[in-house]
User: Which sequence fits this backbone?
């Protein structure tokens, strides 16, 4: 397929995944703030905004004390006057603001733009569904609905995302286009789980059930976790599950295995750089000494996130802008005039 | 009721519904205005969801609008269609012979004085870059859209030939798909002929013009300017219905006179390009050097015969409105046949006598620039202000070669929904003609309708709508029922 189309497909996958992740995390965070004080709740929203990388974390940033937190609240949580806005308004902006890169509205808009330039590649049913979703998000009443009834609105977003995934998996041929999209989704998902653990690991230290539950709910893993692990949860168990589960589709290992298999099918022959990188990351997790890992989890998580980013870059270099391949083949396609 | 002085498609001069419209008219008569409005709402919702829109350049309010489809279909009975099919086949065959003669032949029509030489060489559509570039099967115009109208006597006339990049076929097919879902019962047992196969037919024609050396499985692509083009929806539609890649200029490279596309697995050779980019943007080496839409070296590859571009470069000389006036003569010259569908009466403004007459009667005639399409630049005398008439008079006197004038053709009418009832509105018809190994006319075509009362401008870029066009399958509708 065209390199440009492949790249659009890859990014459509990343944006779709991002939209769904944002909705899940906002929902879990709002749920956990219901019984909390406004300042505590705001702190959580700040943390969430950082998980979603809606603002680059300042070096040495520390949000231990409330005073510090309030001065370091990400700009998107401030009203134009510079005041920190309330939790509900912050959640609404994370979901509805087209100006916030990473909001659901922003991501679905981008995914739709990508699909628009792929109209000849994707099934009409998929186009209609993303278009319907986009129109739903742009309905004039949508931000109000989010503010009035956030849980119902977030559930409807999740259902729309799942419908899209259903259309994808039931109507799209398993060709290159499909593989690039799923690859984009899984790399994005792996990155998001890494970031969630980085932001949440220290919070879970007190081993309170609520903190564990928030982490797991953020990636819809609570029920799967409870089924798999029967002991009362420890922060390290939660981290182990979200990193290393071979069965849960949002664990980092699961996403990397799937990504590796798709890159393997996409590569014409040999072992291109992204395939090797993904293989290294995957085996690094498979054969990890987890006790050694937990001793310094934040560093491991940072390195893992950087590795996944790196692999995504390599996918781009190899499939979307590979100058080497082009010159090579261009010699092979001559001679010109018959 | 029909408008006096115009031919109404559905109702005869005594006010009776014409035979072939009777079942549909009866079906619509049973609908209440509320039911029609509900159907319209359903239609809009469906088009919005499918993103079936078009772009209006230079309009303020959001430039993407949903496609305006009027629910009352246009119906052409089998006998009438058979005549149109013959007439269109004849016309496009002669035009292709003319184009091939001009660019790769001995220019017989010019040599024999059928068309004045200066008219050809002064045409802005005449491309020296296309001279001596041959096209397999001589199919220089592979897809044509011929605009037809019916005058006040009900006679069909050709108003315009579109031999470059005629658009609208995707709307023909989407209109039918929408009508089938919205009004399945209205089709009853009318045996309306299908239009769904267009993608297959187009692909067959494109493969037929592939360079002979490329083997029996040529690679076909559609070349689009990109998602900001007003016809992008159609470009994607065509690529999808043919199952081929939709490429932009930046996806293609020319290496040693071979065109290839950049794929995830390296470069892949391209044999036929169905391009939807105008000539002047195709190749910055020989045309507009600032074009970023095109592919450097594409024309040289075409000349080397390693790739076929469809429609061919330089077809503008064939749909130049000044050359249009000579098409009936070209049909006689190349085919030795009498033209089946006549032209509208046309005045050539570079002929001093005709110019003088036209300038006298400017307020009664339609004046058109010769090289424009999409309805741009047209001045309709009876509707123009004095200032507009004075302006076009100056332009004609400054550059008479650039203009023609025509008698106002009284476009036929057909009921269209106007918010609370159906009222007669003016329509035209753009059938689509494919020329590969043989000529194929897609049944029907795009019926455009001027939705404003009394208006004769049907272009969607200027507030026109469209209608589904039904060609009936049985030669005699009475015998079919």
Assistant:
């Amino acid at each position: 397929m065209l390199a440009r189309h492949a790249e659009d497909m890859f990014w459509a996958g990343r944006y779709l995944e991002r939209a769904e992740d944002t909705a899940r995390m906002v929902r879990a965070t709002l749920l956990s703030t219901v019984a909390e004080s406004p300042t505590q709740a705001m702190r959580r929203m700040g943390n969430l905004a950082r998980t979603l990388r809606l603002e680059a974390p300042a070096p040495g940033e520390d949000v231990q004390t409330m005073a510090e937190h309030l001065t370091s609240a990400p700009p998107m949580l401030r009203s134009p006057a510079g005041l920190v806005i309330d939790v509900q308004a912050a959640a609404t902006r994370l979901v509805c603001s087209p100006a916030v890169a990473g909001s659901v509205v922003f991501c679905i808009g981008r995914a739709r733009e990508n699909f628009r330039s792929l109209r000849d590649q994707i099934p009409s049913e998929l186009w209609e569904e993303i278009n319907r979703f986009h129109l739903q998000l742009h309905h004039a009443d949508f931000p109000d609905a989010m503010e009035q009834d956030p849980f119902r609105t977030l559930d409807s977003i999740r259902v729309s995302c799942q419908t899209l995934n259903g259309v994808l998996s039931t109507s799209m041929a398993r060709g290159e286009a499909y593989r690039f999209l799923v690859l984009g989704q899984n790399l994005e998902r792996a990155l998001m789980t890494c970031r969630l653990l980085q932001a949440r690991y220290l919070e879970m230290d007190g081993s309170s059930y609520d903190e564990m539950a928030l982490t797991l709910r953020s990636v819809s893993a609570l029920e799967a976790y409870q089924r798999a692990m029967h002991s009362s949860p420890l922060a390290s168990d939660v981290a182990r599950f979200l990193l290393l589960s071979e069965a849960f589709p949002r664990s980092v290992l699961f996403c990397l295995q799937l990504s590796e298999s798709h890159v393997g099918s996409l590569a014409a022959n040999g072992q291109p750089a992204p395939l090797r990188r993904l293989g290294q990351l995957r085996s690094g997790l498979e054969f990890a000494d987890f006790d050694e890992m937990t001793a310094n989890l934040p560093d491991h998580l940072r390195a893992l996130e950087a590795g996944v980013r790196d692999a995504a870059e390599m996918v781009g270099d190899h499939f979307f802008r590979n100058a080497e391949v082009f010159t090579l083949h261009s010699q092979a396609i001559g001679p010109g005039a018959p | 009721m029909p408008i006096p002085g115009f031919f109404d498609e559905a109702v005869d001069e005594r006010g009776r519904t014409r035979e072939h419209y009777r079942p549909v008219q009866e079906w619509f008569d049973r609908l209440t205005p509320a039911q029609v409005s509900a159907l319209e709402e359903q239609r809009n919702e469906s088009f919005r969801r499918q993103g079936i829109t078009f772009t209006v350049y230079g309009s303020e309010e959001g430039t993407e609008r949903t496609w305006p489809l009027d629910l009352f279909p246009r119906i052409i009975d089998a006998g009438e269609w058979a005549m149109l099919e013959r007439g269109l086949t004849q016309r496009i065959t002669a035009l292709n012979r003319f184009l091939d003669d001009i660019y790769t032949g001995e220019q017989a029509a010019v040599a024999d004085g059928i068309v004045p030489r200066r008219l050809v060489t002064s045409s802005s559509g005449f491309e020296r870059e296309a001279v001596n570039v041959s096209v397999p099967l001589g199919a220089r115009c592979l897809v044509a859209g011929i605009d037809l109208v019916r005058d006040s006597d009900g006679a069909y006339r050709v108003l315009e030939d579109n031999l470059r990049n005629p658009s609208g076929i995707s709307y023909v097919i989407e209109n039918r798909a929408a009508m089938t879902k919205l009004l399945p019962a209205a089709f009853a047992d009318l045996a309306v002929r299908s239009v769904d196969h267009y993608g297959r037919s187009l692909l067959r024609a494109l493969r037929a013009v592939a360079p002979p050396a490329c083997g029996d499985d040529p690679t076909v692509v559609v070349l689009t300017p990109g998602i900001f083009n007003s016809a992008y929806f159609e470009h994607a539609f065509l690529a999808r219905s043919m199952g081929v890649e939709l490429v932009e200029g930046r996806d293609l490279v020319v290496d040693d006179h071979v065109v290839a596309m950049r794929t995830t697995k390296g470069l892949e050779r391209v044999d036929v390009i169905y391009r939807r980019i105008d000539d002047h943007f195709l190749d910055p080496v020989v045309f507009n050097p600032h074009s970023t839409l095109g592919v450097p070296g594409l024309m040289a590859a075409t000349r080397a015969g390693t790739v076929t571009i469809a429609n061919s470069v330089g077809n503008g000389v064939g749909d130049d409105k000044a050359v249009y006036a000579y098409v009936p003569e070209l049909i006689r010259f190349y085919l030795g046949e009498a033209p089946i569908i006549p032209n509208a009466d046309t005045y050539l403004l570079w002929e001093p006598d005709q110019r003088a007459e036209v300038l006298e009667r400017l307020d009664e005639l339609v004046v058109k620039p010769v090289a424009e399409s999409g309805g741009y630049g047209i001045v309709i005398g009876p509707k123009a202000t004095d200032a507009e008439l004075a302006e076009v008079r100056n332009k004609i006197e400054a550059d008479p070669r650039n203009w023609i004038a025509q008698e106002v053709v009284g476009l036929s009418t057909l009921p269209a929904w106007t918010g609370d009832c159906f009222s007669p509105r003016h329509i035209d018809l753009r059938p689509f003609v494919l020329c590969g190994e043989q000529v194929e006319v897609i049944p029907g075509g795009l019926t455009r309708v001027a939705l404003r009362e009394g208006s004769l401008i049907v272009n969607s870029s200027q507030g026109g709508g469209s209608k589904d066009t039904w060609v009936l399958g049985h030669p005699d509708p009475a015998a079919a029922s």
About this structure: The longest helix of chain A spans residues 3-33. Residues 268 and 319 of chain A are 10 Å apart (CA to CA). Confidence is low (pLDDT under 50) at residues 56-71, 324-338 of chain A.
